[in-house]
């Protein structure tokens, strides 16, 4: 968009707002100016009443009229879900209000979190070792997600998996499994065992068929029971 087009668009918006403003009551105008001044943080109705000294009946009626004109919208404040929170329609709620990328409509999206965990684990398991950027690229190419997964989200999930003892953070030696990763680069690999007794640690990796297979002790690369011929293992890899 050219500067001229952008200027014209902004001018039209101001003109439209001026026309709407002309049809506002005094109560509407006072509330709208206050709500608009809070930008992407919005404001709670209790604070509106305190800062404007308007009667409760006027506040309720004005808010309803402003919403009907699509000038304001009600949003969920994750810190105080029970409070009615409003902001001007042109702004998007800040992360302080929504709770961040892991929240949807004010609720923690546990299904999405678990899905990202599974994809990260699968990537690391298949590659043996993987960097953060490698996991991010693999997850985006997997076609599993309907929304774009961010670098920050992958970082947060990898840290959570390390804390859950599902994976470990290591530095590449450039040898063996680390041959594809530059020496000294931080990368991740799965931890198949945990604790002093060497028991398999339950968690997201339990979704791998090997983790619950009763014949795992007889499974060898070239044996009758083998990952190469296991249909369940292949289905898991083809996720």
UniProtKB/TrEMBL annotation:
- Species of origin reads Sphenostylis stenocarpa
Q: Where is the protein found, in the record's own terms?
A: Nucleus
**What is this protein's record name?**
DNA-directed RNA polymerase III subunit RPC6
User: Could you name the domain of life of the organism this protein comes from?
Assistant: Eukaryota
Q: What is the lineage of its organism?
A: Eukaryota, Viridiplantae, Streptophyta, Embryophyta, Tracheophyta
Q: Does the keyword Nucleus apply?
A: yes
Instruction: Provide the GO biological process annotations.
Output: transcription by RNA polymerase III
Give one Pfam family: RNA_pol_Rpc34
Q: Which UniProt keywords apply?
A: DNA-directed RNA polymerase, Nucleus, Transcription
Question: Record's Gene Ontology CC terms?
Answer: cytoplasm; nucleoplasm; RNA polymerase III complex
Tell me the InterPro entries matching this sequence. RNA_pol_Rpc34, RNA_pol_Rpc34-like, WH-like_DNA-bd_sf, WH_DNA-bd_sf
